[in-house]
Amino acid sequence: MSAIPQHILASQKASIDNLVAIQNSFFQGFEKLVDLNLKVVKASLEEAAQKSQEAIELKDAQAALAFTSGLAQPGAEKALAYGKHVYDIFSGVQADLTKLGEEQIAQSQKQVAEAVEQFSKNAPAGSEGAVALLKSSLSSANSAYESVAKAAKQASKTAESNIAAAANATFKAASDAADAAKPARSRRAAA
Q1: pLDDT averaged over consecutive 10-residue blocks of the chain (191 residues)?
Q2: Per residue in 46-60, pLDDT tens?
Q3: What is the DSSP code string of 39-95?
Q4: Which of 89, 95, 158, 175 is most buried as measured by Cβ atoms within 10 A of its Cβ?
Q5: What is the DSSP annotation of the chain?
Q6: Which pLDDT score is estimated for 174?
Q7: How far apart are CA 163 and CA 74, in angstroms?
Q8: Cβ of 69: how many Cβ atoms within 10 Å?
Q9: Mean of the per-residue pLDDT values of the chain
């Protein structure tokens, strides 16, 4: 076989390998999400059984008030923790896909550079200016891609830190609201 069909076969194999890697990344993320949800359902059922038993054993209104006020904050904490786990799973899949995409782009850039180099070796006399322009354009395109990729990574890191800050602020607000509601409930129960 000639070198061209071998090159095409290698390129097709690389594309199939990349597709399989992408599918594996999605499947692993889905698998983690299913596992997380199963654990959450199991823990929720166990907690519901425990809280039901505690509710049955309540003796007076004061104990009932303390019991109900203690239900909200753990639920908010668990919802935030669940959201963080889901976010981590999606971030992991996104990181895998970004890495695969970067590898694919690097491979494509290498192939284009090799093709340009091969073209420049076989270019007819007098086409040196066109070859130099082609190489310069390729270099400029690669530099532009690297700049965009760097900016996208920085934007992603900034967004991730903003999401973390928002989650922490939400948790603090929920915690403060739960703490503020406790004295008001105690005053109502005492009256």
Answers
A1: 67 86 93 95 92 85 79 76 89 88 84 80 80 82 82 81 77 69 52 51
A2: 998 998 888 888 888
A3: HHHHHHHHHHHHHHHHHHT--SHHHHHHHHHHHHHHHHHHHHHHHHHHHHHHHHHHH
A4: 89
A5: --HHHHHHHHHHHHHHHHHHHHHHHHHHHHHHHHHHHHHHHHHHHHHHHHHHHHHHT--SHHHHHHHHHHHHHHHHHHHHHHHHHHHHHHHHHHHHHHHHHHHHHHHHHHHHHHHHHHHHHHPPTT-HHHHHHHHHHHHHHHHHHHHHHHHHHHHHHHHHHHHHHHHHHHHHHHHHHHHHHHHHHHHHHH-
A6: 67
A7: 21
A8: 17
A9: 81
Contact 89, 36 (CB under 8 A): yes
Contact 108, 96 (CB under 8 A): no
**Which pLDDT score is estimated for 26?**
93
pLDDT of residue 1: 44
- pLDDT at residue 190, as a whole number: 52
Distance CA 34, CA 89 (A): 11
Return the amino acid letter for 82. Answer: Y
Q: Which residue has the tokens 């800050």?
A: 165
Q: Characterize 29-58 residue by residue with b for buried, 16 or more Cβ atoms within 10 angstroms of its Cβ, and e for exposed.
A: beebeeeeeeeeeeeeeeeeeeeeeeeeee
* Greatest Cα pair distance in the chain: 101
Amino acid at site 115: A
